[in-house]
Amino acid sequence: MSFLAARRLTPEWLDALPSTDERAIGSRRDLVRLNWIMRHDAIVADALRAGAREPPRTLLELGAGDGSFMLRVACRLAPIWPGVTVTLLDRQDIVNEATRAGFVGLGWLVETKTADVFDALSPAAPQPYDAITANLFLHHFEGAALRSLLAGVASRTKLFVAAEPCRAALAWTASRMIGAIGCNDVSRHDARVSVEAGFKDRELSGVWPVEPAWRLSERRAGPFTHVFSARREVA
Ligand SMILES: C[S@@+](CC[C@H](N)C(=O)[O-])C[C@H]1O[C@@H](n2cnc3c(N)ncnc32)[C@H](O)[C@@H]1O
User: Fold this and answer.
1) What is the pLDDT of residues 135-194, one digit of tens each?
2) Which ligand 1 atom lies nearest to the CA of residue 137?
């Protein structure tokens, strides 16, 4: 599948739909199932655990959507990382009360930030976080925008973990079949273009800021996922 050799960005339908649109609501429900099938909560939780030298006090998720993904990650981590303050950042304000209560039930504090990621990571907003994560988010960006986003992350944290679509034939074929499990037209479109915009090899390491303090890891995890992590070594 030579068309997967280079990344190709196509706008995702979910990003253009209002949060109250029935098709958007259906697609966010599909995302929960797809994350579950791909085991992204386990992949992100394991990478965070492996990268953290000590339990983080503050955690930021970029492009957190309705927060249900991070809640599943929190379920895995709360027994060993109590009392984390998690900030869910997204352009859409869609974290419901049940999800907020889920974090509280785990003993975590939850904050939401409704903003564009580039405003949230601008030099005017220098707040640091012990760890930052992204799930199915970085593939929305390329070139100078992706570089600037990652530079903003690197200047604010000592641990970053991202789980993204793997740009490979098996993932692309699977993305064409998700209608069989009832995913709607928005999800079917966005899954395919997400794989085409996904990552492979050392593509994220190549745009991470070049500084000797960072230890980078980038690899495939399972059939559909590309995981990147960056940890700042202490001097
Ligand atoms: C594919 S969804 C993933 C949501 C969540 N991480 C998950 O796995 O369920 C991507 C999310 O990124 C958000 N998003 C896209 N571009 C954004 C931007 N420039 N700033 C902030 N959020 C953005 C969208 O609103 C959407 O919720």
Assistant:
1) 999 999 999 999 999 999 999 999 999 999 999 999 999 999 999 999 999 999 999 999
2) 10
Question: What percentage of the chain reaches a pLDDT higher than 90?
Answer: 95
Tell me, in angstroms, the distance from the centre of ligand 1 to residue 117's CA: 9
Cβ(72)–Cβ(38) below 8 Å: no
Q: 137 CB under 6 A from ligand 1?
A: yes
Out of 3.40.50.150, 3.40.50.620, 3.30.70.141, 3.20.20.30, which CATH number does the structure's domain 38-232 have? 3.40.50.150
Report yes or no on whether pTM surpasses 0.90: yes
CA of 94 to the centre of ligand 1 (A): 11
- Backbone phi, then psi, for 15, in 5-degree steps? -70, -25
* Ligand 1 touching residue 92 (CB < 6 A): yes
Q: What is the largest CA-CA distance in the chain?
A: 51
What gap in Å lies between CA 38 and CA 72, rounded to an integer? Answer: 13
157: which 2 tokens?
A: 């944290």
CA dist 169 and 41 (Å) reads 23
Residue 231's beta-bridge partner residues?
159, 215
Residue 199 pairs in a beta bridge with 166
Ligand 1 atom closest to the Cα of residue 194 is 1
